[in-house]
Automatic annotation (TrEMBL):
Keywords: Cell membrane, Membrane, Transmembrane, Transmembrane helix. Residues 1-30 are annotated as: Disordered. The keyword DNA-binding does not apply. It comes from Actinocatenispora thailandica. Belongs to the DoxX family. The chain crosses the membrane at residues 39-61, 73-91, 98-117, 129-149. It is a multi-pass membrane protein. The keyword Ribonucleoprotein does not apply. It comes from the Bacteria. Residues 1-10 have a biased composition (Basic and acidic residues). This is Integral membrane protein. One of its GO terms (cellular component) is plasma membrane.
Length: 157
């Protein structure tokens, strides 16, 4: 339709404001990314929860580092964070906050327990702490995905 004062057709969207292209979460890429990211979240959460259960209850295996008595700092608190945080991340419930807390707990463990012995994780035995720290930070940034309990609860509302 031409503009009333000119012969030029009117553009429904001004040239300076173009519609944004769809983001990475839109289109056919989303299902392909959702499954591996959800699987990553579940596996990391499960392994972390098992680590906490092992430290607290000697189950499913005897832990290398026991949690100590109830309320002892930092071992017992770290084990509770591992068990509860890992379980919640695995289920996808409060994922971003839980993953951030788990990441911080592993950063604390790395810098207080491992790093004083040597700089690199390969030298000081801190590979699991460093890997869990970065894995949980990645989960906190990317979120739980559509196959999480949070997403199911949102859909149910």
């Amino acid at each position: 339709m031409p503009h009333p004062n000119t012969d030029r057709p009117t553009d429904p969207v001004p040239a300076a404001v173009e519609p944004a292209p769809p983001g990475p979460a839109a289109g056919p890429e989303r299902p392909r990314r959702a499954v591996p990211l959800g699987a990553f979240r579940v596996v990391v959460g499960l392994l972390f929860a098992c680590h906490g259960a092992s430290a607290l209850f000697d189950w499913p295996a005897v832990a290398q580092h026991a949690a100590g008595s109830v309320g002892s700092w930092p071992g017992w608190y770290a084990a509770v964070i591992e068990l509860v945080g890992g379980t919640l991340v695995m289920l996808g419930l409060g994922t971003r906050a839980c993953a951030l807390i788990c990441s911080g707990s592993m950063a604390f463990a790395y810098f207080t327990v491992h790093q004083p012995h040597a700089l690199l994780p390969i030298e000081n035995g801190g590979e699991p702490a460093a890997l869990f720290c970065w894995a949980f930070l990645a989960i906190a940034v990317t979120g739980p995905g559509p196959y999480a309990l949070d997403a199911a609860l949102r859909r149910a509302r």
